[in-house]
Amino acid sequence: MRRYDSSEVGGPDILDVEVAASPRAGALARLRTRAALGLEPALAPAVVFVPLGVLLGPLVLGIVSEEVLAHLDTVVSIALAALGVFVGVAVDLRDRTSRRTLVAASVEALVTIAVVLGAALILFAAWGLRLDANPWSVALILGISASASSAGAVDDGAAGADRAAAAIANLDDVLPLLLGGVALAWGAGQPPLWAVVSAVHTVLLGAGVAAAGWLLFERAHGAAERAVFVVGTVVLLGGVAAYLALSPMLAGLAAGVFWTSAPGRAEKVIRDDLGKIQHALVVLLLVTAGASLVWTPIALWLFAPFVVFRLAGKLIGGSLAAWLVPHVAPADLGSHLIAPGVLGLAFALNFQQVAPSATAAAVLAAATAGSLACEVLGVWARPRPARG
Amino acid sequence: MGRAAAVALVFLVMVWVRRAAPEGAETRGAALALGFALIAAAVTGALFERARLPRISGYLLFGLACGPYVADLISRPMARSLQLVNGLAIALIAFVAGLEMNLLRLRPQWRAILRLGGVTLAFVYAVIFAVLWAAWPLLPIWPEATGLPRLAVSALATTVVVSFSPTVTIAVIAESRARGRLTSLVLALVVITDLALILLFTLAMQFARWALGGTAAEEVALGARLAWEILGSFAFGAIVGAAFAVYLRLVGRELTVVLLAVCGLLSVLGDRLHFEPLLAALAAGLVVENVAPPSGDALKDAVERGALPVLILFFAAAGASMHVDALATVGLVALAVSAVRMAAVRAGVALGSRAAGLSPPLSRLVWMGLVSQAGVTLGLTILVAAEFADWGATLQTLMVALIALHELIGPILFRTALARAGEIGRMDAPEEAAPA
To answer: CB-CB: which of B16, B35, B253 is closest to A32?
Structure first.
C-alpha cells in the first residue's frame, strides 16, 4: 500500500484515490483490503456509490424509499458538516507557501465559478428555462458545485507538479464553501444582504460549537470519551446548521479552521477520530445523492453545460493559478483538477435539502451526473504521475 | 473548569438556536438533538460517575431535565427523533450481554440460576398478585371490576408490574465494565425470568380476552407466533452471529462500523420479520463468544468505542421521553406499588437464594439488580393498552410512572451492588483475575 501525504478530504486514508492493489495478492488478502469492503474503493467513490444509490432508490428497487430518504436527511447534514471540517483542517495559514497556495486555489475556484455562472445565466435566457428560484442564485449554486476538485493522492516520491496540484485541490473548496453559505440562503429565498448575514451567522455558530468541542476533547478521559466528544461536536455542527436551514459545510469549515488555529493537538484528534467514520458518512452521502436523483427536462438541459463549462473553467482557472505556485506548468494544472471528488454534489444535495424545489432537484441531478462524467474525463485527462 | 465552560457554551448555542428557529425547523431537529445529547449527556454521565453513581442515571437525568417536560431544550419531535437510535441500542446492548455470557463458565451455576429464578419469580408474582387483588378498589386501573374480570385484569397487570429490564441491567454492566459472579448471575437471571414473563404475559392476555368476553386468538396460531418470535429470534441471531464471527476471523477490520451495522441489521430486519431484536442480538453475541471467541482486544475495543455513544443517546432519549406528568397524577399509587414490588423482589430473592444454596454476600445483593424496568415493561403495557383501550390506558399511566421511578432507582441500586461485590472495572482485567 502506498503512503499518502495528501489530506484531500480526510487525510491519508483517502476516498478520492485509486488503491494500488497488488495483482499478486491472493483472494483472502484482497478481502482484507479496505477496497474490497467498499471502505476504500478502487474507483472514485462517486462512480460506485451514486449509481448504487440510483439502483436502491425509489425510482428502481425502492429499498431506499422516500421515507428512508427523509430519515437519511439527518445523516446527510452530519456528513456535510464532516466534509466541511476536513476542508477546514486543511487550511493552514501559518506559513507563506500555504497562504500562497490558498490564494492560487481560490483564484482557480473563482474562475470556474465565474465561467459556469456566466454560461448558465446566458443559457437560461437563451433557452427560456422556467426556474422556480432566482436564476442568479441557481447559476451561482451550479458554479459552486462545479468548482470542487480532487487531484488524487500523492506519495513521498511524487513530482512537484503532482504535489502542487494536490495542494491546490485541497484548498480550492474553501472559497466555494464560503460563497456557498451565502448562495444557499439566497437560493432559499432570502435577500442577498440577509444571505450574507446568514453566512456570518453560520461561521459564528460553527466557531462557537468548535470552541466547545475543543475544550471537551482536549480534556477527555480516554479514547472512547474523546471520540464521543469529537463525533458529538460534528453532529452538533450539522444539527445547528440543518435546524436553522444554514450550510453545514460552512459551519464545518469554520470549525475546522478554528481547530487548525487552536493551540494543542485538536487538528490531529479530529483527523484521527473523524477519519474512522468518514468513509461511512461519505458512502451514505453518495448513496443518498443517487437515490434522490430525479431526471427532469431542466436537469438534462443543465447537464451538458455543467460538464463543458466546468472543464473550461478548470483549465482556464488552473492556468491562471499556476502562475502563483511553483513546480507546475500552467497548461498542466487544470487537467490535474478535472476530477471533482464529492464536495460538488454534496453542495447540490445541501441546496436540495434547504430549498426543495424542481429547480433544486434539477441542479442536484445535473451536478451529480456532471460530477460522474468529470470523474471519467479526469481519469482520461489527468497527466501521468511523474516521479520526483 | 474547561468542561464547565464547554457545556455552558453548548447550552448557550442550543438556547440561541432554539430561539432563532425559523418556521418548520422542528422537522429538522434530529441532528441538533443528537449532537446536543451526545455532548451534554456525556458530561453529565461523567459527573455522575465521579459521584459514584451510574453514568446511565446521568444520561437519563440529562434527558429528563432538557426534555419536553422540563426545560424543553429537546422538544417533543426532537425527543421522538432521538428514539431512532433505540432499536440499534437495544440490539447492541443485548449483543454485549451475549458476549459476556460464556456458557462454559456459567455451566456450574445453571442449576442455581434456574432455582433462584423460579422461586423468585413465583414468589414475586404471588405477592404482587395478592396485593393488587386486595387493593383493587383503591387502584386507578378499573376499580369497579369484580369477579372473573378482576381476576383476569389483576393477573395481566401483575405480569407487567413484575417484569424486569434486561436492557438497563446490561447497560449498567457495560458502562461499569463489571465482571464476576454477581454480574453473570443477575444477567442470566434477568434474561431467563423475562423470557418466562413473556410466556406468562401471553397466557395472561389469553385469559383476559376470554374473561372479558373478547375474541380469543386461536391457541395454535398463538403458539406458532410465540415459537416464531422466540425460537426464530434465536435462530436468526445465531446466523447473524456466525456470519459476524466469520468476518472477525477472516477480515477483522473496521470492527466498530461493522459491529454497529450488524446491530442495525438485527434491529431493522428482526423487527420486519417479527423477531424480538433483544433475543436475536443476545443469540448473536452468545454464538460469537461461545462458538468462535475472538482473539485479542479488537472486538473489546470496538464494543467500547461503539457502545458509549449509543448508550448515551439511548438513555438520554429515554429520559427525554419520560412521562413525569404520569408521576404527578398517579405518583403516590406508583410509589406504593414500587415499594411492594421492591420488598417482594428482595424477599423472593432471599427465598430463592436459600433454595439455590447461595450464600452471602451474593444472596444479599442479587435483588438490587432486579429493580430496573424499561423497554420490555413499556412494550407489554402498550400491548395491553392497544387491546383494552378503556382500562388499558389507565394501567399504562400507572406503569409509565412506575417505569420512570424504576428507571431512576434501578441503575443506582445495581451499581451499588456491583461496587459492593467488587466487580466494577473487572471486565478490563485478565480473565483469571475475575472472581470465580
So the answer is: B253
Percent of the residues in chain B that have a pLDDT greater than 90, as a whole number: 27
Subunit contact A224:B21, Cβ cutoff 8 A: no
The more confident residue out of B17 and A337 is B17
> For A64-68, A93-97, B66-70, which range has the lowest pLDDT when averaged over its residues?
A93-97
| Predicted TM-score of the model (pTM) | 0.81
Question: According to the model, what pLDDT value does residue B436 have?
Answer: 38
pLDDT at A27 over 50: no
Asked if A207 is an interface residue toward chain B (Cβ–Cβ < 8 A), one would say no
Rounded Cα distance between B342 and B269, Å, is 36
Is the distance from CB of A87 to CB of A110 less than 8 angstroms? Answer: no
Kindly determine whether residue B6 and residue A216, on different chains, have CB atoms separated by under 8 Å.
yes
- How far is A298 from A130, CA to CA, in rounded Å? 9
Ranking B78-92, B292-306, B356-370, B403-417 by mean pLDDT, the lowest is B292-306
Hey, are the CB atoms on A209 and B256 less than 8 Å from each other?
no
Contact flag A238-B31 (C-beta cutoff 8 Å): yes
Is pLDDT larger for residue B426 or for residue A136?
A136
Between CA A269 and CA A74 the distance in angstroms is 24
Q: How close does chain B come to A286, measured CA to CA in Å?
A: 17
Residue B13 has its nearest CB partner, among A73, A205, A238, at A205
Name the least confident of A272-281, B66-75, B221-230, B265-274.
Answer: B221-230
Write out chain A residues lying below 8 Å of B28, CB-based.
Answer: 73, 77, 242-243, 245
What confidence tier does B218 reach under pLDDT thresholds 50, 70, 90?
low
As a whole number of angstroms, the distance between CA B279 and CA B90 comes to 10
Q: State the sign of the Cα–Cα–Cα–Cα dihedral A347, A352, A354, A355.
A: positive
**If we measure between CA atoms, which residue out of B164, B168, B37 comes closest to residue B96?**
B168
Question: What average pLDDT does chain A have?
Answer: 82
Across chain B, mean pLDDT equals 84
Q: How far is B190 from chain A (nearest CA, A)?
A: 28
Searching chain A, which residue's CA lies closest to the CA of residue B2? A215
Beta carbons of A191 and A233 less than 8 angstroms apart: no
B195, pLDDT greater than 80: no
Tell whether the model's pLDDT for residue B357 goes beyond 50.
yes
Kindly indicate whether the ipTM for this predicted assembly is greater than 0.90, answering yes or no.
no
> Hey, are the CB atoms on A232 and B309 less than 8 Å from each other?
yes
Cα torsion angle, A283, A346, A19, A1, sign: negative
CB A125 within 8 A of CB A136: no
A180 contacts A249 by C-beta, under 8 angstroms: yes
A329 contacts: CB under 8 Å, gap ≥ 6: A161, A322
- Closest CA–CA distance from residue B87 to any residue of chain A (Å): 14
A282, A84 Cβ separation under 8 angstroms: no
Residue B171: pLDDT over 50: yes
Do A351 and A363 touch, CB atoms closer than 8 A? yes
Q: How many CB atoms lie within 10 A of CB A246?
A: 26
Strand partners, A158: A387
CA angle B92, B95, B101 (to 5 degrees): 145
In total, the C-beta contacts within 8 angstroms joining chain A to chain B are 139
Residue ranges in A128-263 assigned as alpha helix (H): 135-147, 160-171, 174-187, 192-217, 223-243, 248-261
> Are A238 and A81 in contact, with CB atoms under 8 Å apart?
yes
Q: For cell 387493593, name the residue.
A: B135
Q: How far is A158 from chain B (nearest CA, A)?
A: 29
Cβ <8 Å between B13 and A213: no
**Residue B289 CB coordination number (10 Å):** 23
pLDDT band at B139 (very low <50, low <70, confident <90, very high): confident
- Burial (CB count <10 Å: 0-12, 13-18, 19+), residue B298: middle
